[in-house]
Amino acid sequence: MCVSYGAPLVAVVALKPIAADLGSERSVPALAYSLAWLGTAVGGLVMGRIAERIGVRWTAGFGAVMIALGLWVSTGGAPWQLYLGHGVLMGLLGNAGINAPLYIYVSHWFDRRRGTALALISSGQYVAGTFWPPIFEHAIATAGWQRTMVVFGVGVVAAVVPLALLLRRPPAAAHVAAAAAGSAAGAVLGWRPAFALGLLAAASFCCCVPMAMPQGHLVALCTDLGISPAHGAAMLSLLLGTAFVSRQFWGWVADRVGGLRTVLAGSACQAAALTALALTQDETGLFIVSAAFGFGFSGIIPSYVLAIRDLFPASEAARRVPVVLLCSGSGMAAGAWLAGAIYDHVGFYAPALALGIGFNLINLMLVGTLVLRERQTRLRPLWA
Fold first, then answer.
1. Residue 383 in domain
2. How many folded domains does the chain comprise?
3. pLDDT > 70 fraction of the chain, expressed in percent and rounded
4. What is the pLDDT of residues 179-212, one digit of tens each?
5. CB 156 within 8 A of CB 9
6. I need a surface site. Which of 36, 202, 329, 366 has the fewest CB within 10 A?
7. Using an 8 Å Cβ cutoff, are 55 and 67 in contact?
8. Per-residue confidence band for 378, with pLDDT thresholds at 50, 70 and 90
9. What CATH number does the domain containing 116 carry?
10. Cβ contacts of residue 307 below 8 Å, gap of 6+?
11. Structural domain that includes position 139
12. Does residue 27 form part of some domain?
């Protein structure tokens, strides 16, 4: 994941050069980045089920090849090629074969420390964000964004395919198959399962809209304020590096207080950091706020997966988890695109950040309702 999730970051670091070379507005590369997230989320609905049937090694290996192909197509020089490469190849067929299947795969290996395990595997995305942006910034400055995409695509295949071949079916596979023959989940938090899942999905969308805005536009925001692209890339690395380190903390918390309460705490921290980002203009302050934002949002997504595994039977993970990941990925796509579109319309990022804060507050209300309902029903399931 730390390799595969580096692919969409080329467009983030090269947002302004891509827009200039294509003669387009910033919303064009921002939309490509958004489509990569949306494609990953939509494709996960199918790839999660396929991985349960044929094994995660084959979907992950296939995904790596599609990511490389998507990066190559994206260098064609037309916006539609950028969209096709990112949305369909890199997202729908590429990272979709890695993201949701690996979440489901790892959740079947652990019972007692599932939150910590999910936090660790999902941290690959933030290792990517820490490690790759400075390298991409240097490569783009010396070789251009097109060559950087092609070379990185080759690296994805060379790294991910051999690693995927090392994966094997989890020991829980037989138990999951047996559980599938049993009855489905009854009431969840006193509601019908579909309604409870819908609230979780809506909450995940609302928290990921603001989550995507700094990740997709931080480098461009820095250059608007007179900060060098290299420092902007370093700031993005700090944000995602902090997310990696703190995600292990959030995993430890989730194992003790549960997935829903961890989502609520992380979302509150994210809202506070996003508000500070909207009010900060100097470089030192932005470095501090970036670290705070990385700390806040890092534990949210794996905690949603943990909440689903707590509330629903293990046999339903392959179809419940991708639904929430679909909505979270759609929120990431919407947030990255909205920030670019609003900037193109008004010429600065403050209105986009204000909209993100609004979505974050809606998320807090939804998750707060779920937490209160959990407390009222005294539901403490532990599905094996």
1. no
2. 1
3. 94
4. 544 445 568 888 898 899 999 999 999 999 999 8
5. no
6. 202
7. no
8. low
9. 1.20.1250.20
10. 200, 258, 259, 260, 263
11. 4-377
12. yes
